[in-house]
Each structure stands twice: as C-alpha cells, then as structure tokens.
Amino acid sequence: MSGVQDSAPTPMSDESNLVRALRARDPAETERFVRSQSPRALSLARRFLRNEEDAREVVQEAFLSFFRSLDEFRGQAALSTWLHRIVVNSALMRRRRASNRLERQIDDLLPKFDETGHRLSVGPAWAISADEQLATQELRDIVRRRIEELPESYRIVLILRDIEQLDSEVVAEMLETTPNALKTRLHRARQALRTLLEEEPSICPRN
Amino acid sequence: MSSELTCKELIDFLDDYVAGAQTAQARAAFEAHLSICPECVDYLAQYRAAPRLARAALDGGAHAAPEDLIQAILKTRR
Ligand SMILES: [Zn+2]
Predict the structure, then answer these.
(1) ipTM above 0.85, yes or no
(2) pLDDT digits over A8-34, tens only?
(3) Sequence ranges of the domains in chain B
(4) Same domain, A94 and A112
(5) What's the CA-to-centroid distance between A102 and ligand 1, angstroms?
(6) Same domain, yes or no: A143 and A78
(7) Phi (first) and psi of residue B11, to 5 degrees
C-alpha cells in the first residue's frame, strides 16, 4: 500500500508522462494501458457490431491506429477519449459496409402536434414500466431490433449517452459536434425510440 | 399573458426536466401541466422508460477483454 517501496514501475497518473511512455513503447506502461482500456473499447465496439469477430478486429485496428497517431496527440482530449473515438469511428466504418436497411426516418418517429400544441395520435399507457428487468430474451430481442431502426446518427448518440453513459462533453468531442447539437439529438433519439417501442404490442397494448 | 404550457412546449424540453436542469419557475410550470395532463404524464413515463429499456436490452458492459486480443495488440508494439 502507500509508502511502501515497490519494485514495479509506479502508475503514471500524469497523462503527458503516459504519452511519452507509450510513444517510447515502454512495455509495462503499454501493457497496463491496453489492459485497462481494452474492456471498454471492446464493449463500445460490440454496441455497434453484432459479430464478435468484427468487434475484436475493430478493437485491434483501433489500438493500432491509436498507437500510430500518438505522435500527433497534443493533449486536446483525454487519451481514453481519443481511443474511444477511434474505436467508434472504426466500428461505424465497418458497419457502413453492411448497410442497414432497417433504419427509419427521424421525422416519422418524432411526436406530432396540432396547432394548439396537443399531441396527435396518443396511444394508451405502456404495459411495461421503466425499471422493467426485461425478463425474457424475446423482449430483449424486440428492444434491440427497435434500436436498430433508429437512424444511425441518433442511434450512436443514444448508445454513447444513455447506454454507455459517457459524459456529454466527451461524446460531443468524440462525434465532433457541439454539446447543444448533441443535446437536441439525444432528445430526439429518445423520442424516436419511444415511438418505435410503442409500435410493439408486447410493450404497448391495443396495437 | 398565460404561463400555461402546451403539451408541445413540455415535450420539447422534457430532457431538461428529466435531467433536473431547469429553473424553479420552469419546473413549477412543468409540474402544473403534468398535474392536469395524463397524456403528458404517460409520455414522460415512456420517455424515461425508452432509454432504460434500451440499457436493459443491451446489458453486459465491460468485461475483461480476451487474452489473445490483448496479446495481439501488444505484439504490434514490441
Ligand atoms: Zn400535456
């Protein structure tokens, strides 16, 4: 614990020291970094890619290009944020090769209002509550399929903010957008997912 | 001048309400509307439920990465 001399190198909390060590290919620091960052990187990649093989390849590629681009790193973001951004971009690029025909138009998924500001086509209350455990695999599959129907730019934001629960500044930086634009997009993504889930008879009856 | 919100005005700023990122006056106006509008109460519940259901459906967060993946990454830096 504290105060005890340790023969192992001390963890480098200072990011510029870490960058220097990674650039110099310091084996211990590199391994520490890869071990600490790979679980999150892999879970991120899996969010966008269903195939486990694809997810692992993307993570491997992402670490490669991360290390390759270390020389250009000027501390503009946290190292982990920077790695996550590469992972997300690589995953999305791979995903685009297999185009998604399920996607719907965002405008069709947002609520409509009359001229007095009343919501149109109001459905009944849901048969499922917010803290539902999604006990059945069937229900999980239904929700997953509906998430796939979100337009990509909205699905990404929902995944990074509401599922991965990354900070909005981090995600804005990752997607090279402004916090305000991100906020609007997340709000729409949640509304669109609400509409998609409402189409499910097992979630919203009377359908 | 009316301080009453329409359903649209409420729904447009539901993210701020859910995040608790409103002024006390705005929050009071939202709560006044919700106390008389069951449709918006339902909408709010569903708006909250949607991301939670998504999280539940996509559970299984960050587990340890497989050792062969870690070794493959490290190999490129040796
Ligand atoms: Zn209302």
Answers:
(1) yes
(2) 444 445 788 999 999 999 999 999 999
(3) 1-36, 38-78
(4) no
(5) 31
(6) no
(7) -65, -35
